[in-house]
Design brief:
The chain is built from 8 helices and 9 strands. By secondary structure, it is an alpha/beta fold. It has a single domain, classed as Rossmann fold. The chain binds NADP nicotinamide-adenine-dinucleotide phosphate. GO terms for molecular function: oxidoreductase activity, acting on the CH-OH group of donors, NAD or NADP as acceptor.
Amino acid sequence: MTTRTAVITGASSGIGAATARRLAEAGFRVVLAARRKERIEALAAELTEAGHEAVPYVLDVTDRDAVATFADHFDRCDVLVNNAGGAIGAETVGASDPADWRAMYEVNVMGVLHVTQALLPALVASGDGTIVVLSSTAGHIQYEGGGGYAAAKHGAHAIAGTLRLELCGEPVRVIEIAPGMVMTDEFAVNRFRGDEDKAAAVYEGVAEPLTADDVADTVAWTVTRPSHVNVDLMVIRPRAQAAQHKVHRER
Ligand code: NAP
């Protein structure tokens, strides 16, 4: 028998990397999937050095053929964490570039679809599978300048909800984690196209935004509950963020 295997997409940074560390510590062989080879290789080396099993795999989740090849490569999958994703831009609906919306839909929705479809047979065959979808509070509410990201994350939320219904009776849980404000190194910088000042302003004055590890801790907790316990949806925000628009900032 090989070790229980967890596939984490977007494992090259932020929440994905932190989740890979947590699941490796929980005893899973972790498969680290992302586009940046050096990053996932470095993380795999770090985890291997610490005595864990970690396999890096360069993957673009928007490339359906590549995802199919990826799925064929592994003998088992017990846990899939659909984490790859992100936001591009903060323009109003009226001023948005459709290319940004398409790119967000491709990674946050189609990426989840491709990887989930490809690994579903293995998850069912495991006899005790778990699918995690990292959506966002933006998958549950709208905010000004968040139209494209909210549309995509509402899509991710819809996938999780539909899958849970469709898989009822199969040995596979479907868990949605919807974080609010998480301060990771790249998320806001990517959203603002490399503008570090705009990215920093997102977290300005917020005493303690969530960290990648806070979210990873939640993912690992839900995944390691007894098999019959399905945490359908967990919304996790920093104490300073009571709602999407209600953020306490110290001046
Ligand atoms: P991040 O550090 O920017 O991580 C995003 C990850 O996704 C990276 O590892 C990136 O790796 C990967 N990725 C992007 N496009 C990909 C593609 N086409 N194929 C494969 N991997 C791809 O952001 P994060 O803050 O950790 O966010 C992780 C997830 O949580 C995302 O789905 C995000 O939408 C969600 N989330 C974040 C926040 C927040 O405030 N930070 C809040 C709620 C939800 P490569 O570039 O190497 O491919």
